[in-house]
Amino acid sequence: MQEHHSVTTRFTQAVLEAAQRLGAVVPDTLRDLPAQRARMPMAQQDELWSLFANAPAGDPLAALRLGTGLQAGHLDIVGLLLLSCETLGDGLEVLTEYAPIIGDNARFETTETPQGLLLRYLPQYTVCRELRVEAALGCVVNQARWMTNGRFRPDAVRFAHAPRAEPAAYEALLQCPVQFGQPVDGVTMGAGELTLGLVQVGNRVHAQLRMLADEMLAALPQGSVSARAQQVIREHPRWGKERVAAQLGISGRHLNRKLAAEAISFKGLREALLHDMATQALRAGLPAAAVSGKLGFSDESAFTRAFRRWRGETPVEFAKRIGS
Q1: Nearest CA to 52 among 39, 35, 66?
Q2: How far is CA 215 from the centre of its chain?
Q3: Domains of the chain: which residue ranges?
Q4: Which residues contact 286 (CB under 8 A, 6 or more apart)?
Q5: Which alpha helices (DSSP H) does the chain contain, by range?
Q6: By three-state DSSP, how is residue 179 classified?
Q7: What value does the mean pLDDT take over residues 252-260?
Q8: pLDDT of 114-142, one tens digit each?
Q9: For residues 9 and 40, is the Cβ–Cβ distance under 8 A?
Q10: CATH of domain 224-323
Q11: Rounded to the nearest 10 degrees, what angle do helices 62-69 and 9-21 cross at?
């Protein structure tokens, strides 16, 4: 339900300022909210986007321009966490896990394609959906390009909706092909893009930011079962679906239904978290055997197979590479 959702104030402030630049008259009740609250209720965020959409300037690409103009700081701790990642692939993992901190009724997920990877955007907006999707994907492309010193080259940006301006104008702004009327909203890229190194501030800072982000994610006062399930899985990585569901006070079948409503599967959620926890543990210097036992794998061989599936290399190879 909308009333349970919220958005970080830094992102809200960016939307507010953009709306004012377009000539929208923002009521004091909305303009003062970011300074008064830690997070902006979704109802007020919807109202702000409506003002943005109906601003006198009437620029059809205003939302896309907003997205491409956002900086890491507008994404709260998630932006800082992205800057501390080692590769673009690591950054995408952070985005898929922590995007709810920015706005907790939208999320990202990655899907392998024959050409590489699709980063899907899965919002649950009921107001100004097209504008918000364009802002979000514009932000993704711009941030990925900035964090790789301009080396990121997406194959295409996909929108489910029809173009709001000439397609060529979208491509000029995003500097890549843009496709409309697609089955999903997202960004496609070649597998090689995932290995691009990022501007980063170091592994120690990354670990500290992860801890803060985990606390913020768990503290979100939302109806998101996935956020609560993530917390349980992190605390008990050996547990399966039924035990996690019991901890949440629901049945395994109910947990499946709740996660499906958020376009997530329990298996996919647990796999993503185990991958993340394994990577962090190896970065901290734990041997593969210890990580395997900690995460509940039947033996080290099973862990090695899973890790190779996740990253295309063994735990030992990964540890040697990051230690060099």
Answers
A1: 66
A2: 16
A3: 2-60, 68-195, 224-323
A4: 294
A5: 9-21, 28-31, 33-36, 42-53, 62-69, 77-83, 88-102, 129-147, 167-174, 203-219, 225-235, 241-247, 252-261, 266-283, 288-294, 300-311, 315-323
A6: strand
A7: 83
A8: 889 999 999 988 899 999 999 999 999 99
A9: yes
A10: 1.10.10.60
A11: 130
